[in-house]
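Exercise 7.
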Amino acid sequence: MTPLNTHRTDAIEQAVVHATDEEPLMRERRLEASILQLDELIGGFRSAQVTLLESDNSYVSSLLHLLCVRAVAEFEEEVVWIDGGNSINPYAISSLCKRLGLDKREILSSISISRAFTAYQLVTLIDEKLEEQVERCSPSTVIVSSITELFLDKDMKWMESHQLLRRCLERVSKVTRGHETISLMTNYSEHMLRPSPKLSNLLYEHSDQIVQIRARRDGMLFRLPKADRQTVFMPVPWNQLTLDEFRGDPDGKNSGYIPIGT
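Solution. The predicted structure, written as tokens, is:
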């Protein structure tokens, strides 16, 4: 089990929610995962807010794929996904669509995918092109996966990594508030690269909500550090039915586990 990091409380508490304190939203959206414990804990991911899914476990990738499919199906709008860790998997999306009874071609055609293979490409995709892309396709949801991984390149100086990541985070925040998107970020790295505390603090400062995800023997621990609340969820493998599904509910209450690569 990986212990929760309890040494960054100050940085977490400095993450300020601005959106709901200013002007009322033109259209308020709320995205749920249809995972009972997670939805009860979070209350859904909301428009005009940036949520950081902080995890060193690959389950966060499964959760992102699930939320992506849910967003397209629920809102009938596009999703913009910027991938900084080569983590998006069309086969996982197809598996989810089959399980949820959705047309995979329709879902996949509604996901705009951009991949970055260097930190500079990621900066271009986020700082220079994201707002233009959002204006063009009016998505309900923006996803940036593995946002820190490329900035951990050993050939990059720390100060440059810090400045470039800050630019990206400021742009994501600006687009999120200006276009009222549901915005999700992860710091997961398949290469098990851990961001420095200062880079992590940047993520906290630019996140309206932080969800920490850790593996435990009894399941996945979801924790909201700002609210000091948590819950444990046992993922169900994609080829097994939940009780709700067995009873006839096509989605199920705990149907959120699609192993990446299946």
